[in-house]
Amino acid sequence: MNKIGVLTSGGDAPGMNAAIRAVVRKAIYHQIDIYGIKNGFQGLIDGNIEKMDIGSVGDIIQRGGTILRSARCQEFETDDGQNKGIEQMKKHGIEGLIVIGGDGSFRGAQKLTEKGYPCIGIPGTIDNDIAGTDFTVGFDTALNTVIEAIDKIRDTASSHERTFIIEVMGRDAGDLALWAGLADGAESILIPEKKDELQEVINRLRRGQERGKKHSIIILAEGVGSAFDYAEKIKESADLETRVTVLGHIQRGGSPTASDRVLASRLGAQAVDLLLSGEAGRIAGIQNNRLVHHDISEVLAEKHMIDMEMYQLSKELSI
Ligand code: F6P
């Protein structure tokens, strides 16, 4: 293999730039030509492709977002869209592709691999919802952004003796909510992996009030539903007033943490090695701090699991 490509796709995540840098530098280290595809799979269809060199990725390891930009591309879910992408790969002589993104992006990578264009995926999403890896690139940074925000909300919650419901991202996964809740000592953590426990949340709020607790923090993962609706439910069931903060896209921005930069660098370099050693349709990941890789179909078929021991611990620590 002499020419490979790299793209970022789906929701951006801090650390994607560090991953791009590692892919580009590792390819050059192996004397392979490396092409950057702009705007994800849409850019592949449109032929928005540029050759990259060492300088293309200078001074980006610390930057949030993705210099290649990202998109969610419905056209690439069709045969026609995939074939247009393959035409562009042929035109530029690109023999394999590294796809940095989440499960939607990996489906595109799987299709290309099936059609004879080998792809390797790097999990890049703040949701930490990919099976076969303990962590995805961007999760640690988003987590730190969330806890910084909660710390600030706690200040005002305590001054005004209020209960706050803070809605965090994560799509269908509760990892961000669980880790943030544990790191911030939240009174209740609501995640989609566990059934609604409204009465338990209310009981815990009441127990806190009875022993003189003046403020409370409830973290709600977006996969559970809207924090505003949850506030209504608490009001209706227990006549308790709450304030709501939806953290939103602030969670996707910012300079990546050291942990995300290192993870992205390791996975980026590993992805190039996998492609050059003839692997196809694999997802690079990290488990127990060791680099691993799994079949893309298995990763997509398997559901990411939340750490239930951590969930139990969070309950035990916020009695
Ligand atoms: O997958 C990352 C993510 O930020 C999710 O947590 C969230 O549900 C979604 O993307 C938001 O997508 P968009 O930026 O397209 O609104």
Automatic annotation (TrEMBL):
What is catalysed by this protein? Answer: beta-D-fructose 6-phosphate + ATP = beta-D-fructose 1,6-bisphosphate + ADP + H(+)
InterPro entries assigned: ATP_PFK, ATP_PFK_prok-type, PFKA_ATP_prok, Phosphofructokinase_CS, Phosphofructokinase_dom, PKF_sf
Compartments it resides in: Cytoplasm
Residues holding ADP: R21, A22, V23, V24, R25, R154, G185, A186, E187, R211, K213, K214, H215
Q: What class of enzyme is it?
A: transferase
Which catalytic residues are annotated? D127
What is the activity regulation entry? Allosterically activated by ADP and other diphosphonucleosides, and allosterically inhibited by phosphoenolpyruvate.
What PROSITE patterns does this protein map onto? PHOSPHOFRUCTOKINASE (PS00433)
Gene3D superfamilies linked: 3.40.50.450, Phosphofructokinase domain (3.40.50.460)
Report the residue ranges that make up the Phosphofructokinase domain in this protein.
Answer: 3-275
Q: Which UniProt keywords apply?
A: Allosteric enzyme, ATP-binding, Cytoplasm, Glycolysis, Kinase, Magnesium, Metal-binding, Nucleotide-binding, Transferase
Name the cofactor(s). Answer: Mg(2+)
Recorded metabolic or biological pathway in which this protein acts: Carbohydrate degradation; glycolysis; D-glyceraldehyde 3-phosphate and glycerone phosphate from D-glucose: step 3/4
Q: List ligand-binding residues for ATP.
A: G11, R72, C73, G102, D103, G104, S105
What Pfam family does this protein match (any one)? PFK
EC number(s): the record gives 2.7.1.11
SUPFAM superfamilies, sorted: Phosphofructokinase
Q: Which family does it belong to?
A: Belongs to the phosphofructokinase type A (PFKA) family. ATP-dependent PFK group I subfamily. Prokaryotic clade 'B1' sub-subfamily.
**What biological function has been recorded for the protein in this entry?**
Catalyzes the phosphorylation of D-fructose 6-phosphate to fructose 1,6-bisphosphate by ATP, the first committing step of glycolysis.
**Name listed for the protein in its UniProt record:** ATP-dependent 6-phosphofructokinase
Q: Which organism is it from?
A: Lentibacillus salinarum
